[in-house]
Amino acid sequence: MVNDVGWMTQEDWFNVGKEDAWFKRPKHPPEQDPQAASLYDLGYSEGVIERPPTASNPIETRSSTEDH
Q1: Is the pTM of this model over 0.70?
Q2: Which domain of life is it from (predicted)?
């Protein structure tokens, strides 16, 4: 994890949290910036309940193409 958190945007921290959850990495929010840590935690929580964009459900894909 990068120690210098100043160059990352709020959206960056949110996305890093989601990505860590998707890849089942341990939670590691930035320690120096409480707002960035909060956004990281929010992203991590969302990532736990969402699938990564590369994961697809073959059943969903098949049924959605059959309906059209």
Answers
A1: no
A2: Bacteria
Q: Could you tell me the residue ranges of all domains in the chain?
A: 10-23+33-46
Which residues, 6+ apart, have CB-to-CB distance to 26 below 8 Å? Answer: 20
Q: What is the tens place of the pLDDT at every residue in 13-60?
A: 999 999 999 999 999 999 999 999 999 999 999 999 987 777 655 544
CB 44 within 8 A of CB 27: yes
Distance CA 18, CA 20 (A): 5
Nearest to 12 by CA among 29, 32, 31: 29
